[in-house]
Please model this.
Amino acid sequence: MKIVTRALHLGVWAAAAALSMQGANAAKPGDVIVDCDGCPEIVVVPPGSFIMGWDGAEPVREGEIRRYEGPEREVTIAQAFGVGRYEITNRQFADFVEATGFEMSQGCFTWDGWNARFVDELSWRDPGYGRPPQPEEPVACVNWAEAQAYVEWLSERTGESYRLLTEAEWEYAARAGNEADYMWGEEEARACEYANVFDISAQRRYPDAPIEPALCDDGHEQVAPVGSFKPNAFGLYDMSGNVWEWVFDCHEMPYPDDAPVDGSPVITETCDRHGVKGGAWMTSVDRQRFTFRGRDPIDLNSQVFGFRVARDL
Model:
């Protein structure tokens, strides 16, 4: 297991914040920015405040550690910032690999409907779907370090400040003013309007999965092309479902007493796990809460892990 030091994280964060921001000063909330041919579409998200986290956790399951999602705290994001309209796609990630020759890790965890198992032959080019991944599907089998390499390359390519979202930014952007627990509100039957979750379609493919399906059918047994569902109020797609999204923060449970309240990341002395947010196509509805907190090692590759980007304005 790799250890990432606090100094490294602070250095990466400071470097991203210091990059040029030419041409973005006039951007208004709701505007869409595209910095280059093939670059991700960036939606300008307005500043604001919200209550982050939840003073509770999912029901205890046999053999699992209870995942506390609090304590709650008020977070104020004082300036507008950019968020990827969609999760990064296979096409966009291929541009990075081809341009840089970046050596991607080999092997990936795949889900067989019951267990996750590591398969040496799998990679982001073959995440184990039983078919080739499509260009406009979200890239998967990408770990945190590889997602970080992508945003660093995108920053160098464009001269703008690209990075991963912080956990606070992610929850704020996902909610988009929504005070319910889920993107679709509290009516589970509406989940398939907004998110690719484990539903009746997925259950048909994985009938023995120990997951209660959502009471709807989105027509996708596995991953779906980005933008296949309704956006949230900020115009962001797939903030719930499709693939889990890496965030910049080191994972600490509970949130530390000195956790930032300005949207900046939680950074710890040793950082062997990072946050993942938003659930995936094989995730139960209860883990699609805005506040649910996944946490995984920096070098973990999974067919249900991808990412989206942020851009400073």
